[in-house]
Amino acid sequence: MSANYLFAKRKRKFKATTDSKHNYPIAPNLLNQNFKVSRQNQVWVSDITYIKTKQGWLYLTVIIDLFNRKVVGWALSDNLSTGDTIIKAWHMAVKKTILTQPLIFHSDRGIQ
Predict the structure, then answer these.
(1) Is the whole model's pTM more than 0.85, yes or no?
(2) Closest CA to 61 of 39, 42, 45, 40
(3) Local confidence band at 13 (pLDDT 50, 70, 90 cut-offs)
(4) Which CATH number applies to 38-112: 3.40.50, 3.30.160, 1.20.120, 3.30.70?
């Protein structure tokens, strides 16, 4: 195999990146998997995804309006700090949106 420049690639062991078993305060689940909303800016949902690149990991935070499924805010970062992920995405979302009625902001219960 090595004469043909073929090498085995070992699969890495799965590493959990979210800790849902924590003692931090947990907000009540107001959404309760009811994803049907009647107006724009009624419910925003958010999550972070991990993107592997040649230079290392990137973290993409996205905020989506459930009414029209449009991205209202996002942030791309090379670290998981709150200031570089969700805060930047939140600022982008509220900067270009006029909120006149109550809004539910929903994300998962994990912590990074």
Answers:
(1) no
(2) 45
(3) confident
(4) 3.30.160
